[in-house]
Amino acid sequence: MAQKKSIVFFHPDLGIGGAERLVIDAAVGLQARGHKVTIFTSHCDPGHCFEEARDGTLDVRVRGNSLVPPTIFGRFAILCAILRQLHLVCIVALWNYELDHLRPTHFFVDQLSAAVPLLRFLYTDVGILFYCHFPDQLLAQKGEGAIAILKKAYRIPFNAIESWSTASSHGIVVNSKFTGGMVKRVLSKLSRRDLKVVYPCVDISTASQLQRKAMWSGRKVILSINRFEKKKDVALAVKAFAKLDSSIRKSALLVIAGGYDSRVPENVNTHRELEQLADSLKLSHETHKSLPDPSVVSDKTSVLFLLSVPDVLKQTLLASAELLVYTPQNEHFGIVPLEAMLAQVPVLAANEGGPLETVVEGETGWLRDIRKPDEWTAVMSRVLSPSNPAELRSMGENGRKRVQAEFSKEQMALRLDQSLDEVSNPHTKPQKPPMIPGWLWMVVIVSGVAVSLALLSTWLLFFLLENKTMLSSVRAHSAGRTITEEIISTTTQVVRNEL
Length: 499
Hints:
It contains 19 helices and 14 strands. The protein has 499 residues and is an alpha/beta fold. Helix 1 crosses helix 16 (409-424), helix 8 (235-242) crosses helix 14 and helix 18 (468-475) packs antiparallel against helix 19.
């Protein structure tokens, strides 16, 4: 019998998205194999996370969410993410010693690798497996003109940190062959590393419970499920839908559902831009944050926006859809096409990136060029036509069989377990982390000092502005102490009260 492990996960923000779904599935799958699993994250909103993260299925602990914000005025997201992860590790390893109490045998780190060298330094005998969803430097928005040059310069130290810290992991797995190729291309330190593929999964136990049922009688649903982010290119689905013949479109409904967080400016802006696009194409639309009753949607609505749909509603939408439209360019994997195929829904996806490894052209769906919206319109028209139901049923059955055979939670957990076993073997571990360049040390130290001073100053300023007692005390410095002495004294007292 395999030795039981104590596996500690580190994930930046345990919200709702493909990366978060993978982390939850991986944790549940490894736990089902008899291992002890604990997840540390900097943020997990019970109202905006997957069920397993809030119902007690998993041991999720939120730490390190008090010092560094997710962004600074909507900017510097990668800097804040790195500082938040380092803060998280320092809290659980050096402040309250939670990690020591858990006696970890393995660390599972994903999405952000900055803390890997620190974990390796603090826990020399614990194997570290890094799950790479996609290189962060390729996910960063590039901008145009002078802004692009500034962003490129700004990203130089962070790209170097990503390459160095990822290479410091004892083992690295990727979510697709496409991602593996991109990782080796942009992260030079990993060009000779063995990157194993561990595909994300879907819960196939729900397959028998999914019954095809229309949510809107007399209307066929074209469904898009993605986060409200510009890079997901949901606008393509709107443009292709608008090109449908009016006689076909009037009996159809384009439903755009997905992850939405009002704290994230990009989510808000993308939703607004999609509404403006629908207006420009003369497509009537409406938006709902929840949909307790489908009948509230007007019969005249062409595009329905649903924000942060819960899993139950998502499954209901899939069960009613005629076609799943998956628009991202060069998506590193994409879990939604698998969920659609499990629900026996044909998939129309981009003919690049991860969908090439999940969707089979002509058997489980169609792969089309994102630069040719007319091709997407043609597929939509074909699906909405009443003349080919047998073809759609066959594609649905083929999709479900493919998912059950290749992308189950059990298969993913088994492959991850095997990868964790490999990093337990000292002969497979690099003897020491790759050497960090001297210039990068200077950048990190200077940036760290500058950010720390800025945060400390901001923190102190808030105390001064919000605490009337302190202000009064500062004004009363004439009693014998200087202003500086009074501020230090009163700040110390406030901090003690806060702690």
